[in-house]
Amino acid sequence: MGSSPTPACSGKFLTMHKRRRKKLTTRSLSQDNAILDDIHHGQVQKILNRSSKWAFNAFTLETVAGGRSLPVFCVHLFHYYGLLDHFHLDVVHVWKLFTLIEEGYHSTNPYHNSIHATDVTQAMHCFLQESKIRQHLTPVEIMAAIIGAVAHDLDHPGVNQHFLITTKNHLAQLYQNMSVLENHHWRSAVGCLLESGVANQLIPYRDELEKQIRDLILATDINRQNEFLTQFKKHLDEKTLDLRKPGDRNFILQIALKCADISNPTRPWDISRKWSLKVCDEFFRQGEFERKLNLPVTSICDQQSTSIAKIQVGFFRIVVFPLFYEWHRFLESDLSNHMMNILESNRQKWEEQERKENAEETQTELSDAEPDISEDEEATKRSSEAISIIETIPPPPPPPRDIRRQSLAVPTLESTLGVRRHSVPVNMEQSLPRTIYRRESLPLNKGSKATVSPQTESRASSGLREEDEMQRFGSSSDISSSSPHYSSAEEQPERPLSAENLLPEPTIASMTSNAEVGRLSSVLQGNNPPAKYLTRQQTFPPPQPFMRMRYMSATVEMSTCKETVHEDSQSSSSQSSRENISANNKTQYTIPSIAVLSPNNSRPPDFLLPEGPAPQKSSFANNKRETEAADKEKVCKMVKLTEPGQRYEKENVDPRRTNGSLSKRRGSAPVSLPLAKPDENMPPAGGGMDSDTQSLRRGSVPIEIAHYQSYEDENSDPVINITPVETTRMFWQYQRRGSAPLDLPPLVGGGNGGMLDRRELTRHTSLNGKAGRRKKQLRRRSSGGPETVCLSDAHSETLSRLLLRRPENSDALLARRRGSLPIEVLTVGHSVF
Ligand SMILES: Nc1ncnc2c1ncn2[C@@H]1O[C@@H]2COP(=O)(O)O[C@H]2[C@H]1O
Ligand SMILES: [Zn+2]
């Protein structure tokens, strides 16, 4: 790769960079290096053992799993449900599938990141355990439920559908403003299935599996909440659900995923509150983007006019309670009872918080209104002449607009919900059309004769409808009425900033041009049937040169699929919004307890962060877009490879193309090292390694993923058609040691002939904020993306069998190594590259 050619496509998709920002928890244990991994993985197993409990904390798993909670948990579930055995799946492909999915989540999103995916998947897992459900499920349905849950927000850009529509993101146009994000999520999920090779192993089930995943993910569009809720109520009222029927099971799984998706308010307070802060952080970040773009600020995204407590109170009441009420009616179980109790308790905490806020604001309002005594005294001293002068002066202009204050003197429902306070940049207030959310006109809802709760009456008397409130939690699917709605580009007011500069993920900002959008749309919609033309967009994975290398095989594979790959589009997506539901509030709430919120949960968006040292210029950064890209990369503190010709080759690069430049690479994957048979010449654990050994590992996959075959949980019963494997101990706990990645590249000045010893490495990964290159290298150890090593098929087979199929050999192999199992060893046997 000599002189750097201009890349064919300069679009950016920085997911994989950004995920590396995850912290390594074990840093705090740096004083005792030897036990790092032992503790670490013991904790992982402990958490997995409790992962059927509702008190599950995805943040904790993420921490102890070194940022890999998603693949760790999902592979665990595949083991647990016996899916690997049932479908004869290779864990290599399965691990790869979940690694790809994990990488598809943006770790820079405060909320819509892979931890949310883990959380939702765990909730789904709990629901699958419910006796009413589990006894009827088939293996394909269980697998679809897990994959659907974990991929349900895949490649979420951290802004909602409304934002994408408003900013004319190409995805919005591609999907005609309908379930824009959800369509993108499920298509990305299918892409990962293909990419990982799992789809190939499931050929007889593929159609059914993909359909189920699609149905599940599309159901998470909050704009369709009313549709599902009404149908669900009807089923329950008429007792028509029969889970022996596949259609009804499909429906219940859809409801289950919807519940799982918004289940954070039903988690124990500490966990629930954390999710609330994170989701509001993301909302407020979008609000900042909107402000920068001179767009009307979506009410729940407007930190100046609403608060976390207000959002939570509204969300609990309008969105969560109605759905969980029906879910509880259906399940009638300990779990559902438990969830409802927690929901109520959490609701009370937020309401108390909101009342406190309102009281404080009212107080401020009153004190603002009271004249200052000293001012009064001062005034009495004024001369009559002065007074007469004042009288001749026209009344002063109104004080600077403070919409929030004005509406808070007497707390009203409007102010509580923030509906009225749709803040608009001052300079646009007159000229911009107001956001008028489309009111979902679902016939069933209109005709519903739900009991009118006090809350509903209150809303009615204040001229509000629940659907109005509901809209605050999402966006309409109808662009013509839901966005600030410029019918054409010409009508748009001039924007001082572009969405491209402001979006949280530059990737979604690298939208296609209008021409490209038009072409995409015509490809998709012009001929029939539109959906056939796009299996997955080039947006996922990214259309960068280095990604093209990685994904080339997938492209080839996809080209053989029923659907044609369209390569030119780029990525994005976002959460969807909510439509109105007729919230049937049946509870009269009381407000006893107090919640304490951190005073300010906002943070400046990434693009406002103070800039660090200028990034090294690369030969590619010679046009504006690339310079911007470089800036963004800098802001996001992403590690880059700057060697000419290798700029785009991060850890995903084909190792054959790295010229053995280990020191230039972030990851610890073996590069261009000869591979010996794994069962020969292996060094003792913790001992010196030869290059062959080093080449075999990189320290990313927790060993138990490859190995652990069983699961014990007191709550879990076997699932029909699925045989959970039983065990009494986790042998790896006795066999594993080690912590630091063994294959860290030589470091300049590292002593020991260029090699850094373990203590030094650990020290450099401490939380002293002075992370240098070495810190990054160590951090990478627990978050490696899939890398490949070129092995002969024979070697691959051997390795794969040794590690995965033959416990006795695996034991021997594992006993000789420290650190975690190299993903490339797992993947190599089946690498499609
Ligand atoms: N605690 C919460 N407060 C407000 N909104 C939430 C909360 N939890 C989830 N949501 C919203 O509900 C949506 C469900 O679908 P998503 O996960 O795409 O995006 C989610 C958020 O927009
Ligand atoms: Zn979600």
Automatic annotation (TrEMBL):
<feature type="binding site">
    <location>
        <position position="152"/>
    </location>
    <ligand>
        <name>Zn(2+) 1</name>
    </ligand>
</feature>
<feature type="compositionally biased region" description="Basic and acidic residues">
    <location>
        <begin position="623"/>
        <end position="636"/>
    </location>
</feature>
<dbReference type="InterPro" id="IPR002073">
    <property type="entry name" value="PDEase_catalytic_dom"/>
</dbReference>
<feature type="binding site">
    <location>
        <position position="153"/>
    </location>
    <ligand>
        <name>Zn(2+) 1</name>
    </ligand>
</feature>
<dbReference type="InterPro" id="IPR023174">
    <property type="entry name" value="PDEase_CS"/>
</dbReference>
<keyword id="KW-0479">Metal-binding</keyword>
<feature type="active site" description="Proton donor">
    <location>
        <position position="112"/>
    </location>
</feature>
<feature type="region of interest" description="Disordered">
    <location>
        <begin position="351"/>
        <end position="404"/>
    </location>
</feature>
<protein>
    <recommendedName>
        <fullName>Phosphodiesterase</fullName>
        <ecNumber>3.1.4.-</ecNumber>
    </recommendedName>
</protein>
<feature type="domain" description="PDEase">
    <location>
        <begin position="36"/>
        <end position="357"/>
    </location>
</feature>
<feature type="binding site">
    <location>
        <position position="153"/>
    </location>
    <ligand>
        <name>Zn(2+) 2</name>
    </ligand>
</feature>
<feature type="compositionally biased region" description="Polar residues">
    <location>
        <begin position="448"/>
        <end position="461"/>
    </location>
</feature>
<comment type="pathway">
    <text>Purine metabolism; 3',5'-cyclic AMP degradation; AMP from 3',5'-cyclic AMP: step 1/1.</text>
</comment>
<feature type="region of interest" description="Disordered">
    <location>
        <begin position="769"/>
        <end position="792"/>
    </location>
</feature>
<dbReference type="InterPro" id="IPR003607">
    <property type="entry name" value="HD/PDEase_dom"/>
</dbReference>
<feature type="compositionally biased region" description="Low complexity">
    <location>
        <begin position="475"/>
        <end position="487"/>
    </location>
</feature>
<feature type="binding site">
    <location>
        <begin position="112"/>
        <end position="116"/>
    </location>
    <ligand>
        <name>AMP</name>
    </ligand>
</feature>
<dbReference type="GO" id="GO:0007165">
    <property type="term" value="P:signal transduction"/>
</dbReference>
<feature type="compositionally biased region" description="Polar residues">
    <location>
        <begin position="578"/>
        <end position="591"/>
    </location>
</feature>
<feature type="binding site">
    <location>
        <position position="116"/>
    </location>
    <ligand>
        <name>Zn(2+) 1</name>
    </ligand>
</feature>
<feature type="region of interest" description="Disordered">
    <location>
        <begin position="562"/>
        <end position="693"/>
    </location>
</feature>
<dbReference type="InterPro" id="IPR023088">
    <property type="entry name" value="PDEase"/>
</dbReference>
<feature type="region of interest" description="Disordered">
    <location>
        <begin position="437"/>
        <end position="496"/>
    </location>
</feature>
<dbReference type="InterPro" id="IPR036971">
    <property type="entry name" value="PDEase_catalytic_dom_sf"/>
</dbReference>
<feature type="binding site">
    <location>
        <position position="153"/>
    </location>
    <ligand>
        <name>AMP</name>
    </ligand>
</feature>
<dbReference type="Pfam" id="PF00233">
    <property type="entry name" value="PDEase_I"/>
</dbReference>
<keyword id="KW-0378">Hydrolase</keyword>
<feature type="binding site">
    <location>
        <position position="261"/>
    </location>
    <ligand>
        <name>Zn(2+) 1</name>
    </ligand>
</feature>
<comment type="similarity">
    <text>Belongs to the cyclic nucleotide phosphodiesterase family. PDE7 subfamily.</text>
</comment>
<feature type="binding site">
    <location>
        <position position="312"/>
    </location>
    <ligand>
        <name>AMP</name>
    </ligand>
</feature>
<feature type="compositionally biased region" description="Basic residues">
    <location>
        <begin position="771"/>
        <end position="782"/>
    </location>
</feature>
<dbReference type="GO" id="GO:0004115">
    <property type="term" value="F:3',5'-cyclic-AMP phosphodiesterase activity"/>
</dbReference>
<feature type="region of interest" description="Disordered">
    <location>
        <begin position="522"/>
        <end position="545"/>
    </location>
</feature>
<dbReference type="GO" id="GO:0046872">
    <property type="term" value="F:metal ion binding"/>
</dbReference>
<feature type="compositionally biased region" description="Acidic residues">
    <location>
        <begin position="360"/>
        <end position="378"/>
    </location>
</feature>
<feature type="binding site">
    <location>
        <position position="261"/>
    </location>
    <ligand>
        <name>AMP</name>
    </ligand>
</feature>
<feature type="compositionally biased region" description="Basic and acidic residues">
    <location>
        <begin position="646"/>
        <end position="657"/>
    </location>
</feature>
